[in-house]
Amino acid sequence: MFKQLPTKSYNWILIIGILLLMAEFVFSFGGTIIPAIICGFLVYISWKNFYTLWGKIVFWLSLIGLIFSILSLMAVRFLIIAAIVIFAMRYYDSTKRTDRIYPKLPDEEALNEPLSRVEPLFDHTVLDDQYTEETAYQWRDVNIHGLLGDRVIDLSNTVIPNDTAVISIRHGLGNIEIYVPYEVEVSIHHSAIFGNAHIFHESHEKLFNKSIFYQTAVYDHATTRVKIVTSLFSGDIEVKRI
Length: 242
What we know:
Elements: H1 7-27, H2 33-48, H3 53-71, H4 74-96, H5 108-111, E1 125-127, E2 130-131, E3 142-148, E4 151-154, E5 164-173, E6 176-180, E7 185-199, E8 202-215, E9 225-234, E10 237-241
Parallel strand pairs: 1-3, 2-4, 3-5, 4-6, 5-9, 6-10, 7-9, 7-10
Antiparallel strand pairs: 7-8
């Protein structure tokens, strides 16, 4: 919907936002801009010392202060209101241009096409830890999201098919652990706002809004392989051989 907005409209919205930012800085003696800069500086310093107790406390307090300071800016409020108005206008216009689709009815044989329901390994949970079974289990691709808790997937108790097995996890706060057998090739694409990553022998400490990508040497030519795509707001990921 926003792609239909002319470039000039985007430019005017941006110009007005910049003017409001400058006006607040000049006429309000800094307004909430200075507190936002101070909170941002504290976020950076405390993240560098996140391994200490005071670092964790200062980080979360300054992050909350930074969010509230940014939301208190007139320019930010204007941009939020402008986005809501544009979205509402485009949505209203789209309801007046309803495209009618007349599907072609399938034949009787296609209507009776057999389907089998397969239970997933994990269900979507908000506040809970999830683990694969400790006994042998049948593999099914994983595609889940959650808010809090840990996710542990052990592939040593299942048989990966001669195909690409997929593990897709989108999570808020918590840790992810994935154990992969030695004979299975792996591709890992991980993104995180905050956290650490340990991929086999590679380690990344204190990730900050970054993405990393690894794959084993013969992944592209392997018949048995696992594709791992994960994203975390705050937490650690560990992928190791077992």
